[in-house]
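Schema walk-through. Below, the input block comes first and the output block second. Nothing else is stored per chain. Lengths vary across the set, and this one has 145 residues.
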Amino acid sequence: MKKLLYSLLIFASATLFAQKNPNVKFAICNDAVGTVAMFDLKKDFVQSVNVFKTKSNLPQNLKKFDFLADNGLAEVKFKKDVGTLDFMTLGSYNAQSGLPQDASVFIEGYEFKNPDTKIFADMIADAKVETVEGKKALVITTVKK
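--- output ---
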């Protein structure tokens, strides 16, 4: 009976960590991932925002991010006189956390498999190594709890 209970607890915790947060809306700028909330705080830098409500409407340059488009996906363009925000690849974040560079990273329940994906540092509220689906992975949250 104890084995069954432990198995259910482990399965439940893995399922809980892997759930996608429906409240987070992702945005792409200069081929890097951020959140709409993050860019809302930086309105002075933003020239335009195009929102794509479905995966089928995504332009070719955003197709590689279609797994983030469950709640739509925004494309943000900065003003010309503004540089860019700090960003880093997920492989670099994994290395900093003592994980293999090619390990998956979970951001708000969305699995990022490509270690070359760039994310904006400003979107990270918390990052920690956890066991997800039986493997050590970096889990990033974008909203302070």
